[in-house]
TrEMBL record:
Belongs to the class-I pyridoxal-phosphate-dependent aminotransferase family. It comes from Kutzneria chonburiensis. One of its GO terms (molecular function) is transaminase activity. Its EC number is 2.6.1.-. It is an enzyme of class 2 (transferase). It holds the Pfam family Aminotran_1_2. Residues 55-363 form the Aminotransferase class I/classII large domain. This is Aminotransferase.
């Protein structure tokens, strides 16, 4: 056998389909094509370039505390307390790391035994199942038509955790209080962890109420909250995310963080701690606009006879392909090659989602979004039986 053969585990792990598509977009753009990009997992905001020369503190160029810069942990703990009434001890119940993607992986690594099952409702953010597999666990996907109130059917003696992505990427759905209470009851009854990914918590329109999972379990007996600065602050490239959990779990994640990452980027953490509220003040009005655009587009799609999975938050729409005879991958490939519009195939978000596509309205101006939507509708019409 060649020395370059990968571990057998890797054959079970796929590339992130959204990132694969976006790489294709970058390649097409580099070769001179104008691509309307409705496939990116982020909203673009106008933000001032950070100035580091007025930062206080020493060691800005160096490693910092592996739990995260103390000032940043304090700000994040206060944010969860003030916004969602979730008490967080900044010394022991939070760890900041290089993005929430790494945070979720480290938490899974810290809690899963080989063969442990993790319940993941579809449509899911596509890294959950692959991360579970990387940790030698077993992702148990739940088709998208199964109600949260029926998740109990998927619990077995091997179930270790349930992932709740609220608001949801790709549907923009916000869970109701009754649904969250049900998940917590289920977790308590079976000794499971609820891994609550709240990366889009700011992207909720007025009138929709968002409840943090942590508010149901202030002592963190079974709740792990994961969040990120990537979306709410519009700084995905800074790679800063965090986990809020029981100190016992945070201590385990700390060990993994020390061996994999050391610490989140120090100078950026320091900047964030000092400008925490200023940045949010800049992003919040822009968040409101992009969420309003999302809901405007949802209305336009409905008017044009297209079905969108119910949701009101984020900048994503999970739209049905209606009568098109194409599966989601064939549809997206044709849309990109022939229409110059990129969206993500629904199959990336679960096997029950191959009749859908994810449309992200966060990274293009309104007129280009409208042109992209027209191209999607035209391709559905052209490929309908
Ligand atoms: N959770 C969800 C639901 C996401 O959509 C993303 C990024 N697309 C992440 C986590 C990871 O974000 P980051 O690593 O940038 O914090």
């Amino acid at each position: 056998m060649s020395a370059t053969h990968p571990a057998s585990l890797m054959s079970a792990v796929d590339q992130a389909l959204s990132i694969k598509y976006n790489n294709l977009v970058y390649e097409l753009r580099d070769s001179g094509h104008d691509i309307i990009t409705l496939s990116l997992g982020e909203a673009f905001f106008d933000l001032p370039l950070p100035r580091f020369d007025d930062l206080s503190g020493v060691g800005l160029h160096h490693y910092s505390h592996s739990r995260g810069l103390p000032q940043l942990r304090q700000r994040l703990a206060k944010y969860y307390q003030d916004e969602f009434q979730v008490p967080v001890d900044p010394e022991q119940e939070i760890i900041v790391t290089a993005g929430s993607k790494a945070a979720i992986y480290m938490m899974l690594l810290a809690v899963l035994e080989p063969g442990d099952e993790v319940i993941i409702p579809e449509p899911f953010w596509l890294s959950y199942p692959e991360q579970v597999r990387l940790c030698r666990g077993v992702p148990v996907m739940v088709p998208q038509d199964v109600s949260v109130f029926d998740l109990g059917r998927y619990v077995t003696p091997r179930t270790r955790a349930i992932v709740i992505n609220n608001p949801n990427n790709p549907s923009g759905r916000v869970h109701t209080v009754a649904e969250l209470a049900h998940v917590h009851d289920l977790a308590e009854a079976h000794g499971l962890l609820v891994i609550a990914d709240e990366a889009y918590n700011e992207f909720v329109p007025p009138g929709t109420s968002f409840r943090a999972c942590g508010a149901f379990d202030p002592d963190k007996h079974h709740t792990v909250t994961v969040n990120s600065m990537s979306k709410n602050y519009g700084i995905s490239g800074w790679r800063i995310g965090y986990v809020i959990a029981h100190r016992r779990l945070v201590d385990e994640v700390l060990k993994i963080n020390q061996h994999l990452i050391t610490c989140a980027p120090t100078i950026l953490s320091c900047y964030l701690a000092e400008h925490f509220d200023d940045i949010l003040e800049i992003t919040r009005p822009q968040i409101r606009r992009v969420v309003a655009l999302r809901n405007e587009v949802a209305g336009q799609l409905a008017d044009a006879g297209m079905t969108v999975v119910p949701g009101s938050a984020s900048f994503y729409l999970f739209a049905s392909l209606g009568d098109s005879v194409l599966d989601s991958t064939a549809f997206c490939t044709r849309l990109l090659r022939e229409g110059g519009v990129s969206v993500v195939p629904g199959i990336a978000y679960g096997r029950s989602c191959d009749r859908h596509i994810r449309i992200s309205v966060g990274a293009e101006p309104v007129d280009r979004v409208a042109r992209g939507i027209t191209a999607i509708r035209d391709l559905i019409d052209a490929t309908s039986a």
